[in-house]
Amino acid sequence: MDKWERVVVGVDGSEGSRLALRAALEQAREHDATLTVVTSWTEQVVAGAPGYVAYGLVSEADLSAVAKQQQADALTSVLGDEPTPRLDQQVVEGHAARELVAAAHGADLVVVGSRGHGGFVGLLLGSVSQYVAAHAPCPVLVVR
């Protein structure tokens, strides 16, 4: 069995991302690889009257803290008391799909849930998983 260096997984707090985290954890353990867990957040923009938008209704620190907590909750629920592989936790500002593709450079595998938060009912793949599958520089595992 080949030794892998790194498995990347996107976590957004959804059940789909927890399933992806479980699958990524299994792959990291099987291949003795570092598990890189990526959670992203973006600044919230609210449209107002025509031509006006509101920024900063929630502070960047608050958005980052929520993302960190989502990641911590997912890790706790999936890992439990089991021993963990080498873990690299990343909470970054940016669009989830682009941040996952960036994190996947140099990785052996990137794992995403088929659907996370958002999207339209009935789509097989969410926009993040579609983007990652099309643009990742390594193999992609989509979990549903």
From TrEMBL:
Database matches in Pfam families: Usp
InterPro entries xrefs: Rossmann-like_a/b/a_fold (IPR014729), Universal_stress_UspA (IPR006015), UspA (IPR006016)
Domain UspA: residue ranges: 4-144
Transmembrane segments: none
SUPFAM superfamilies xref list: Adenine nucleotide alpha hydrolases-like
Family recorded in the similarity comment: Belongs to the universal stress protein A family.
PANTHER family: ADENINE NUCLEOTIDE ALPHA HYDROLASES-LIKE SUPERFAMILY PROTEIN
UniProt name for this protein: Nucleotide-binding universal stress UspA family protein
